[in-house]
Write a structure and sequence with these properties.
By secondary structure, the protein is of the alpha/beta class. It has three domains: about 130 residues, no CATH class; about 90 residues, PUA domain (Archaeosine Trna-guanine Transglycosylase, Chain: A, domain 4); about 240 residues, Rossmann fold, CATH 3.40.50. Helices cover about 30% and strands about 15% of the residues. The strands form three sheets. Strands 11, 12, 13, 14, 15, 16, 17 and 18 form an eight-stranded mixed sheet that branches. It has a six-stranded mixed sheet with strand order 5-9-8-7-4-6. It starts with 7 loop residues before the first helix and ends with a strand.
Amino acid sequence: MPRTIESYSSVKTRAEKIPRFSRPSLFHLLCLSFARHPGGCRPAGSYSCDALRGGGGGHCSGNARAELSARGWPCARELSPGSHRGDSGGSWVHRSQPGAPFSCELGPSGALARSPTRPEAAGAARRASAAALRTRLSPRPFAGLTVSGRRMSAADQAQGRLGAEFSAVPRKRRAAAEAFTTVRVNTHLASVKQVKNLLFEEIHKQFKGLSVPVLRHPELQDILLIPVIGPRKDLQKQSSEVIVGAQCGNSVLRGAHVFVPGIISASKFMKAGDVVSVYSDIEGKCKRGAKEFLGTKFFIGNGISELSRSEIFSSSGSLKGIGVRMTDPVYLSPSLDNVLSSYLFLQNLPSAVVSHVLNPQPGERILDMCAAPGGKTTHLATLMHDQGEVIAMDKIANKVKKIKQNAALLQLNCIKAFCCDGTKALAIGKREDGQEGPPFSAESFDRILLDVPCSGMGQRPNMAYSWTLKEVTSYQPLQRKLFSMAVKLLKPGGILVYSTCTVTLSENEEQVAWALETFPCLQLQSQDPHIGGEGMRGAGLSLDQLKLLQRFDPSSVTLQGMDVNSLQDSREEDLILLANKDCIGFFIAKFIKLNSK
């Protein structure tokens, strides 16, 4: 008779003792302990993990160990205080090992190697690389594994709700860049064909003749995809080092150079023109101006220093501009800073899907409730051919300024941006004559995009998490306030699209279930295009309702590098399918308001 799994409160108490940087381990631990499935039973293809039950000799079954390893979760055994190996009182759990050398885990151990020099061997390597790409596209079970095949009690299921919320993307995958750089063409000023040709020439110049294709997405006609080469295993680390912050490191993994404000530390004798190795301080422990850093760091590539150490840290003023020009990044992605700036907009693929799902029409009145920095706002205006009215709101003035700058850069005139708290956007009583901005009258918008503030657990690359449980669970109430306001502002027959860039059940499917119960006037609608997966079970939605949702789950594709050989022998349709899967975590739901009740 299997023992009852460890209670949620016990797991939470122990997990909160884990150092702040290791908190992703908490997410893995909770989703492994409490992942929910209809009926409380383990579905086909899931794994039983005896290590999650107390008991002598707790261990992973071979399948569970293999699955965890494939997802980047090393199998670690952790005993409750006072217990010892083999003691029946021991509580054994899975979690990522906090002492692992994270600085060298940029890619999987099975990443593609450099091809041999002999032509026939090189051909075999290309074919193997293409086969690996097809394998990478094969479906995999959801990251939240279940605990044994027994039926869970009602209490277990209630506690399991929180566990499913923390089904985070494994650490290796978060640290890896997306497989493609996604670029949206401003079709208001230029054709996709024109921009595609200009972009191909720019990439050819940046990559010094390396042949990297620019693909047009077949279902998103204004989207271009540029494959990212990497992780590159043949880079030689230099003695001179530059340490940057985690956010700067994330940007470098996506193709950016290192700007001076992002530099935390540099080697003692670094001069302008030196070849340096750049590392990301993923724990935030490096002191500004340090001459050496021996803490946990993540190698992100080599570059040439534009300034000396003394110029970076001894300047009386605040320096700006490029500090290190990246010449050999671990992930080779084009730098598009100030490149075709009025014709291109860097945007994650799912973020571009959202605007197409809302499908704004010329002449309509559209509201983007949480609009900064304006990527989706400008996309909506472009899809409307700059005809109609797009109202963009954000509660932070500097972010509103950024929205206006982006609108001006892309030469879009139908956008009006206002600084306003979205939860206070509804006018009480009659509005003043000629008033353009918020608060707005009830039922005054044809379509509303609600891309809510969220825990952001789907963002990639993301080498460092700093959230607490309290912070992660704080978003649901705010999202519901914003959603309630959006329903009041939407006209009968209008369309509301709700989206997040996170993977938690509580901020996605549970919000949809709550909305359908709270607002009988709302009805889920099918989405076009629908290139993501269906919704996740566990929130009480029917299978038909889950099919109407769109969830982008990066854990559904095998993490593996991409090299030039695999690109040459890969079919375009395989690359497009990979781009649809190997992206950020994201969620989209589309509603129609049937009446005013």
